[in-house]
Amino acid sequence: MPYEKNLFATAEERNNLSGEPIYGEPSRDWFFLEDGLGVEQFRRFAPLARKALRHYAKDAYNISTIDRYTERMVRKHICNFMRVKVEEKVQYDWEFIDNCMKMVIGDLLKIDIPYDEARLSYLIPEAQVHADWEKTMH
Fold it and tell me: This protein's superkingdom (predicted)?
């Protein structure tokens, strides 16, 4: 499988034969999908970040007006969850990830997304690696 293949493409992206810009205009597409964010490794997490933003923020998320900081931070969190899973060979703690993404996206977009704050202080034993790995996410 080619490295460039987009594993997280949305149905709209897979069926986009017209070449319409994903982020509303070509300059925004370049910025978000090429190297405008300055961190090339996060580019591969763009579709998954958009899915997370759409899922958690609902109508508060507008792909044509999202700012680069918000998109970059969501990509960074997704990247970190995957990095820990792969490098440390631990399981995902889906409930923790769900609550963390609700908190992060709610804070970034300044919207109220209810989450279980107590659950953020606990990782299932199968997902624990180091006590301070979360510090790399900030």
Answer: Bacteria
